[in-house]
Structures are given as C-alpha cells and as structure tokens.
Specification:
It contains 11 helices and 14 strands. By secondary structure, it is α/β, with parallel strands linked by helices. The structure holds UDP-4-deoxy-4-formamido-beta-L-arabinopyranose. UDP-4-deoxy-4-formamido-beta-L-arabinopyranose binds next to helix 7 and strand 8.
Length: 338
C-alpha cells in the first residue's frame, strides 16, 4: 500500500515509516517541522536504504494537502501530526485546539474528496482521564481529560467516529498509545524533545548524558507498590509494528475501532530507574520531589483487543527499552542536531 504519514518526521512516525517500508509498503511523509527535523527523514532513508518522498507542508493548509493528494494515490493515511505537550497545552489551549482539530478536519475533507477513506489515528491513553480502575479497556467510559491536549485527542476520536457513522465506507482505527520509549536498534532515530524533557525516559537519558544534574521523582506517595507513578511503557518499535498491523486491518475492514497499544504491564518510576541502571551499567542520581499536578497513580493497558483484532502484541522487554533509549542518546547527544 501507499500510505501518507502526517507529522512523518516525528518520533513515532519515523519508526513507523521504517517498519512500513520494511514490510513492503510505500510511505510518503508530510511535515511542517514545527516539532521535528528534516534530518530525521534522512536517517530513515539511511536505515531503509532508499528515498522517502517528503513534503514540507502544514496539514492545516488545504491547498497544500490537495496538491499532495493530486500527486499521489494513497491507499491509507496515518495521522500523527499534532501538538502533543501536555503542560504546554494548558498554557496555550487555543493553539492546541486550532492546530490539532483544524489539521484533522482539513485532512478528512481532502481524503474524502480524493476517495481515500482509510485512516489510522494517533490517539492517546490520556483520553481515559483519571481511571477508576486499571487495566484500561477500550470500552470503558472516558469521564473526561485532564488537559487540553487530551481533549483534542478525545474530540478527534469523536469527529472520526461521526465521519464513519455518516459514511460507513470509511475505515478508521483509533490507536490509543500508552508510554512510548526506546529507539530503533541502529541508534540513528529516536526521541528528540526540544528543551527540558517533560517525559520520564528522555529526562533520564539526559541525566545519564550529563546534560541534566539529576532526576526528580515526582511523588512517592501514590497508591502503588513503591509509591511512585506506574505507567505502561512500550518500545517505540513495538508501537510502530502495531501501526503496520492497523493499516492492514483498515484495508480489510470498514467501520471504526478503538485499540490500545500497550504492553499490559505497569512499571513505576523507580522500576524504570533501576532497570535503566541495570541495563546500561549506570547509576542515575535522583531525588524525591512533590507530585506533578494532573498525574494519576497508575495507568496501564488491557492489550487483548490489539491481539485479537490485529494479531499484534508488544514483544520487547523493559531492558530493550532502556538499552535502546540510552543507545540513541549516547550516540546523538544533541538529538538530530548532533
Ligand atoms: C511518566 C511517569 C511522572 C518526568 C505523558 C502524556 C501522555 C503521553 C505520554 C502523548 C509519571 C514521572 C516524569 C520526571 C517523574 N503523551 N516523572 N519525573 O505523564 O504518563 O504521559 O506522555 O500522548 O499523553 O501525559 O508520561 O513520561 O511524563 O511521566 O517522576 O521528570 O514519570 O510523574 O509517573 P505520562 P511521563
């Protein structure tokens, strides 16, 4: 299949591009590089050994998107493009709603106009809000999100469900990611956050690289086995392979499915620190600090539906995730600016 990846130069998208092309598909990238680097695409081309057609454009730009669809006959689209920093979304909510919703509405209109009705959407476990129970199942009622970023994902899910209700010939898969970490084994592509990382693993790797002094463990009074927050960490390559399976599923079915992409196993912050130290022979300095507002005690997936519907399950271990995260950071001290 020929598949368009919006936001294709991003962390999860580049890993997905590699897996799609290694599975025999043709991937095309559109990205405005607001949160990514063209170098990331060059690294993908290096890994797969062939060029990747790339357009520099904003998915909100309808004329640009029409030109891209005029020039290519896409079998499906994976919609990664979107602003994704939880904390930032609280301070500039209108930019998040405008960008994430507009880009999706524009994409769907252009897809429909060109007869392309297979869409895989990059959603997030954040749509579950503060869970009453874990593991999280796709049929659980989502009580509400804790930040505008999460609301944009929630609203886009509803928009896409409405599109399918109005035109059942669409095929939409809403993938709810848990906590993607790790990097391609080559160490040539990985997570390259701008500024001080918000997320745990890139913060840890920058401490390991000596770019940050120590980790602050945000709260140790949660209702978990060691008091620190528990999350479902999933290797980004496992996540990428899940997208390949989701595209295959979308090509063979119609309708709309919500699917968790997680391991089903929760690890605490201190579990991650200890695993990272063990996998890499390091000793990450940390202090215990106050809880981060909006954080929940525990969040991890019920992964059964992905296994049943997609024939997919995560296979990489926590050691793989820790080793590959450090391998990327160690070999790229300044990310794609190295
Ligand atoms: C993980 C754990 C923190 C940093 C976020 C988004 C979610 C998704 C994944 C996009 C928590 C603790 C963290 C630090 C810490 N992104 N922590 N010190 O918050 O589970 O999910 O990223 O879809 O939408 O909300 O991930 O990596 O920020 O935090 O102790 O310096 O690590 O409290 O328990 P989170 P995270």
């Amino acid at each position: 299949m020929k598949i368009l990846l919006t936001g294709g130069a991003g962390f999860i998208a580049t890993h997905t591009c590699v897996e799609l092309m290694e599975a025999g598909h043709e991937a095309v990238i559109v990205d405005n590089y607001v949160n990514s680097q063209p170098e990331a695409v060059r690294r993908v081309e290096e890994i797969v050994g062939r060029p990747v057609k790339t357009y520099e454009a904003d998915v909100c730009d309808k004329d640009a998107m029409n030109r891209i669809f005029d020039e290519n006959e896409f079998d499906a689209v994976i919609h990664f493009a979107g602003l994704k920093a939880v904390g930032e979304s609280v301070s500039i909510p209108l930019r998040y709603y405008r960008n994430n919703l507009d880009s999706t509405l524009t994409l769907c209109e252009v897809m429909a106009a060109h007869g392309c009705k297979r869409l895989v959407f990059s959603s997030s476990a954040t749509v579950y809000g503060v869970p009453d129970e874990v593991p999280l199942r796709e049929d659980m009622f989502c009580k509400g999100c804790t930040n505008p970023y999460g609301w944009t994902k929630y609203m886009i899910e509803k928009i896409l469900m409405s599109v399918v209700t109005a035109d059942p010939s669409w095929s939409v898969v809403l993938l709810r990611y848990f906590n993607p970490i790790g990097a391609h084994a080559s160490g040539r592509i990985g997570e390259d956050p701008t500024g001080i990382p918000n997320n745990l693993m890139p913060y840890i790797t920058k401490v390991a690289a000596g770019q940050l002094e120590k980790l602050t463990v945000m709260g140790n009074d949660y209702h978990t086995h060691d008091g620190t927050g528990v999350r479902d960490y999933i290797h980004v390559v496992d996540l990428a392979k899940g997208h390949v399976k989701a595209c295959d599923y979308a090509a063979a079915h119609q309708g709309c499915e919500i699917i968790n992409l997680g391991t089903g196993v929760g690890y605490s912050v201190l579990d991650i620190v200890h695993a990272f130290n063990k996998a890499n022979g390091l000793n990450i300095p940390y202090v215990i600090g106050p809880r981060r507002p909006g954080d929940v005690d525990a969040c991890f997936a019920d992964p059964r539906k992905a296994k049943e519907l997609l024939g997919w399950e995560a296979t990489k271990t926590l050691e793989d995730m820790c080793r590959d995260s450090w391998n990327w950071q160690r070999n790229n001290p300044k990310g794609y600016h190295s």
